[in-house]
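Problem 12. The chain below contains 198 residues. Write out its predicted structure in token notation.
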Amino acid sequence: MTELERGGTAADDGGSAAADGAAAAAAADSGATEEPGGPVYDVGRRRAAGIYGAIVTAAIFAATTGLTTAALVVAVVVTLVVYWLAEEYAVLLGEQIEDGRLPSPARIGHALAETWPMVTASFLPLAAAVVARLAGATTLTAANIGLAVVVLLLGLHSWAAARAARLTGWRLAGATATAVGLGVVMVMLKNLVLLHLH
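Solution.
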């Protein structure tokens, strides 16, 4: 191989490495991660799905009164699963309608996995409510404990999202406080329903 050919090969290798590095940097900037042996997931979308699921969970905790803890668990999980499936149906249909074709099974599975945190966001609050009930708490107290856990989760989710967006100072505090404020509104709503409308 001549010096000119070797130089061309080295330049090609350097260009490929640079392209690979640029692609990796773009993926990192977009918040995408790849699980070993699996597809690339949008971290931001997963985090947003978790926040949305926590808010819906809080709303159900706040709006339902008089349910047993078991019925509350069923109501929350079923509602979130329906929300999860309905949202992905709408998103996938909207994405594919311009091309006039249906999404592939692989694309559907990837989209559902990406937003599954919408459902799992309810697991810890529900577990807290169940444990409290088994420990002897009343149904109302157990529900309030679950709602308190949701408020904490909203704060943690929002703090993590704000940190990922490189927010600092009052912007970080404001983003976190906004989510916690939504949870507090749910608590106030529950008290309003119980004390004045029930």
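Discussion. The beta strands are 32-34, 40-42. Students who got a different answer should revisit the alignment rule from Section 12.3.
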